[in-house]
Amino acid sequence: MASSNEDIQISNKLDDAYQHMQSAQLYVSKAPNSMSVDLVNKADDFYNAMQAKATTAQNILAAVQPVYESDAMKTIRDGMNTLVEGLPGVLKALDEVANIHPFIKIAVGAFKVVVELDLKRRDNEKKITLLFVEMKDMMEVLIQLRLIKDEEEPGPDGTTIKARMQELVKRTADDIKTCANACDAYSKKKLLVKVLKSSSWDDKFKGFLTLFTDRRKAFTFALEMHVGKGVDDANRKLDSVNTKLNLVLEFFATLVPPDQQQLGELINSRGGPDAVMKENDVLTALAKYKPSSEVGSAKRADAHADLRSNKDPEGSLKELKEELFESADVAMQKNLETFERKFDVQRKKIIEEMQGIVRHEGDRVIDSVLSGPHDKIRDTDIHELWKDMRWRGHAKARHFVLALRDYYSSEFVSTSGVSGPVPRVIAEDQWALKYLDVEYISALIEAFDEDASGFITISEVNQFTTSRPQGWSVVHWLAYWAQGWQMSCTYYIVKITNCFAEIFALEPHVRAENHTFVAEYLMNVWRPVTTLSASMSTFAVEDELWSRFESYVLAEEKRLDDALKDVHYYIDAVETLYLITGPGRIEQFIFPLLYLLVRRHLDVMRLCYRRVVINRGELWYAAGGIYYIMDMVMARVGYLESLFKQRNLDPDKQFKTFAYGLYNYIRDQDQFWSLKSLMNGSFTTADFRPDEVEKDLPEPGDVLSYPTPMEGLFSRPEEILTESDLEVSGPLKVILGRWYGFFGEGDAWPGYPMVTFFFHASEDASVAKARSITAGGVSFAIVGQHALKDDGTVEYSFSQTFSGGYEPRHLKARLSDDGQSLFGLWGNKEDDLKDEFYLTRLPPELLTARPSPREFRENKIQALWRYAIDATREQIRRKSTSLSWIRIKEYLARRNKYLTLIAREEDQGLNPDEYKELAILDHGFTYDEACCCFVLLEMRNRAGDKVPNFGCNVCAQEIEGVRYTCLPCSLAQNTSVDFCDKPGCRDATLDIDGSTHLPSHHMIKVRTFLFYDRDTPKLFGNATRVIADLTEQAKKMGTRPKLPAADARNDQGQDGDTGLVDGASGALQAKDSVDAETPVTSPIDIKKDEPETRGRATAASANKVIGVRPTCVSCSAKMEPPFFVCVDCIESIYICTDCDEQLGGLSIGAHTPSHSLLRYSRSSETNRAAGPSEERLRALESKVASFSGQFTALNERMHRMEGLLESLLSRLVPEVSVG
After folding, report:
1. φ, ψ for residue 998 (rounded to 5)?
2. 769 CB neighbour count, 10 Å cutoff
3. Beta-ladder partners of 1109
4. Which PROSITE patterns does the protein's record reference (predicted)?
5. Model confidence over 303-337: pLDDT tens digits?
6. Which of 496, 554, 783, 1210 is most exposed by smallest CB count within 10 Å?
7. In this structure, how many other beta carbons lie within 10 angstroms of the beta carbon of residue 421?
8. Which residues partner with 422 through β-bridges?
9. Residue 362, phi-psi category: left (phi > 0), alpha (psi -120 to 50), beta (remainder)
10. Which residues face 1170 on adjacent strands?
11. What is the per-residue DSSP string for 934-965?
12. What confidence category does residue 361 fall into, taking pLDDT thresholds of 50, 70 and 90?
């Protein structure tokens, strides 16, 4: 083993280091208590620790090395390394045997499907590979059936091979599918989950290894017995199989990937899995962990992790804990439906490949005896060209395409046996010759050269020619890739753009409970899709040319749509995408695939409008499908970039032209999505039309992948006892089935809402187990066992564990004599059980009427009478068919009070009286009713959720309410500069990258949710035009701004700014425009409609103006800056700051409180982002102003002194005259 030499080298180095340390001690011993002595001692301790570890490693290595290097283990390793190479031969042999013995087709078919699915997985782990090796070894036994010619011929014991093995083969097919589903579920788990749950999954995989070995033994035994070799011969073969199984299980334990090893060590350093799962902060940090590149590359087990970057961390942690709480069996069960869809799709593809081999007219028949490489080419024309050019296995791409163009451009070709020359291209295809021009040479090269290597191989030629539609010539196919593909991309880009425009128009109007998820979907999906669509150079669709390609384009769309329907539009992995698209470059199907998914998501949004409240996961996993496509895109970009560098080509230049620039923007998105670029573009918009939204609305069950929150509340599928449950006997059997109950806590009864679960027996019939969900939505598992006490009674012990990090419960219970109730004590620690619980088989309606255990202890007779009376009343009330308004009001009042209390309990806790009231309400609701209340509470919370999309530049907190955006600073910084509504933030002075934000800057006040990338350009554009209009009017008036003309804001205007009114004199001061560089040009979108432009109100527009000064539309007060101007209304709406603050927004005419407002400031000089020189100038002005104030004060004092002297003189003058 390579690692053994490394360990020996390390040990030798440690010994050498120790010798040097011993010699060093001779010198330092003369200096006791010195720092050198301490250092040497520490080094000695470190050496001893390292030496101990090295010795331990060598001891372990010495123990396992003989086994690892044995011939049997080498065979296992070789089987793993050669699995892929050996599968085609095995599959071919199995197909041949299946034709002889059709009864094995079911197992052979399942094996072929799961092998194809596994081969599509990019990052197969060695554990999964070992499973498939054992699966292959099992199936190879069936190849021996080819020695048996007749499956109906009886063996020596009179049993046919079909009768002996048919049922076994059917079970094998099911086992293969179950194993493949387990592998699929495991591959989707996050790295952290794989490590923390490794023991659970390892046990499951070892079970499959044992199962396949047992099945292999069963096949071998059946074959040996059929051919009459005897039991002894069969047993000898089975012994060798058992020996190999032991080695395989030992080898399996060593197959831990490097990334899992590294994370496992980190987890152990934090106290181990149990300790880690109890610490939320540690779990959150470990969930973000990525292995170092030296140990192993980080695998992306869950592409939805990127989607959750904007998600609430508490929500992500809750999902992680839910996943950690799941057992391997539960995870497999959840994944089964998705896996079965993929299984069926792959099975159909295999059948289609076997039945749908297409031969085109003119294709050559490839003989087994070949005279040269050109004879492997199927197309006659290209075969002739390849032969004439004397190319071998490949040709330079450019040379090949140019030669092909010259070949087809020759008008005539002489053909033996035909009188005179004949056209090389038939008349129907003459139109296509123009697209073989040099102008399209790059597109043609890309069509042939799938790997972008710069060379075209014979296999690539055959792949290109055989993939063309039936009835199309090669020239027609070339024309499609020269121009038709770009045209089809344009066709789908327009469709995608229009779908998003409809979604954005619908977004503000969806139900409040759905809005957060719709907004998060758009925040995560729209930008990457738009980056792709905007990057590509589009081509206007020409009807005549489009008609030549339309049939193929629509056929491909239908093929993809059918495949998406088969998986219910749920893309859970990149492998699923390969399954949907089939072979080929991603460029071929990227836009039709995106369109089909976005169109489907639009249907979900339409349901979100008014009809349904969707599940939390509906749009998250819908967006996940888009992200898997982007994973493929980024993988393709990375591959192309490395290939261009290998070919000494400049990637920047290549990506500008490759696939018509498809990947150009995706490589460097910062410039494209910069504010300057956005300000120069516009996005397609659509009007919100409620009638169109609800027109031909699909049924929720046909579109939604997840049940809605309200589904299943009162129609929960009833569990029944299984066959294994019915076979159980004794004390375990009497507790199997459905239970309802309450748990008390302290003096409160109950302390929690009603619970329910259904006990089943374990596989070995040793314990009872159940899984369920609390009324509050927390998953839990409960496991129970029994023990016989000294007094002959049976005591049951239960352990209840919860997802989400809640403390487990331990229960001790006794079964009532009638077997209808379980009761006892519970606690969070096994040695501290002090709270009571009561479980019953009776209907939950009767349980709500049952008094508490304390009441039964204190006065059992009274409690029984009360129980009987209340239960009777409850049954009569519930069975009554008439509903009175009093009963409805009473129930609604109880429910609303319950919702208030449980909401307050989550947020701030309750006082003792409120806890008592909550306990009474808990007692009065059945499990289903309590579930309904918690769902209603979730709907209320969802309706009030805010989507944080911007952060405050001062306090660094997410802004969930009113947001202020500084216009001049944003334009100067090329990104949005935002402040929350707290006075200390919105009125702050802030240094930003060498410039200064001042409170007097023009600010945009936003009260509604806006998408930064999409809405900011329009918002800033409108605000800039408002400022430009006011500036222009101020210049024209020369004194004060006048209400502009109606069409003044229809023009683009200019970036400008001005002070509106001088506070002292009222004279207008015209100022310079807002500093901002000219935005760079970027083709952001294809416009369907021009964006709505803003216009001024006319004189009759009812915006109140007294003289020439703007007045508040609410209080009619004359306004001086700062004041607000609506940037969304067509008419100019002016609002004073007092009215806006006091009323929280105005509703007047078309103006609504959700409209954005520009806060227009007094002086434009302060409305620019101040640079360093401006700061010094401002400081100088400030000093001058302070001096001016001092002079003014001095002047006033002089005036007062002069007045005092004058008054004194006036008094003195009469006295002097008298004297």
Report:
1. -115, 150
2. 19
3. 1106
4. EF_HAND_1, EF_HAND_2
5. 333 443 444 445 577 778 778 878 888 888 888 88
6. 1210
7. 12
8. 413
9. left
10. 996
11. HHHHHHHHHHH------B-TTT-PBP-S-EEE
12. low
